[in-house]
Write a structure and sequence with these properties.
single chain; alpha+beta; three-stranded antiparallel sheet; 6 strands
Length: about 150
């Protein structure tokens, strides 16, 4: 009878050990998925920061010149479908979908930029194609600010 009791107790301990191991594996996988998600989100934010800095440099370069037109293209996260320029004093560049914060660009004539839009008044949205957004930065002679054109 002693052997029977030990056999049952041994099976219970193995079952608990297996269940505990499975739970540890599930927790480990959940943390790994969470870590990968955080990493990818951080990577997207970094890529957007580079985009904003590069765009601002190109705007400033065109702004410092007397006149001209420059086509530009930038890589941004493919999750973003559109980059929109809006006539707002706090945030004049926003993204669709709006999972990311917008930015405030300087030296841009948003009134002229948004007047070219046929879809939404006071905004100009440019589609992102294969992770790239392309536009033209334009400044005419005697203008003070740069206009963004699709």
């Amino acid at each position: 009878m002693n052997k029977k009791g030990e056999g049952i107790r041994g099976q219970t301990e193995i079952s608990f050990g297996v269940i505990f191991s499975i739970l540890l594996i599930i927790v480990f996988i959940a943390f790994a998925i969470y870590g990968i998600t955080i990493f990818l989100h951080t990577q997207r934010i970094g890529q957007l920061g580079l985009f904003k800095n590069d765009l601002q440099k190109d705007i400033d370069s065109r702004w410092e010149s007397t006149s001209g037109s420059t086509p530009v293209s930038y890589s941004i996260p493919q999750k973003i479908k559109q980059v929109c320029f809006v006539d707002d004093t706090y945030e004049n560049m926003v993204f669709v979908p709006d999972d990311f914060d917008g930015y405030l660009l300087e030296n841009v004539d948003l009134t002229k930029t948004t007047v070219h839009s046929s879809t939404h008044p006071k905004s100009l949205c440019i589609d992102v194609v294969n992770g790239k957004v392309s536009m033209t930065l334009k400044k005419d002679y005697n203008e003070l600010l740069v206009t963004i054109i699709k």
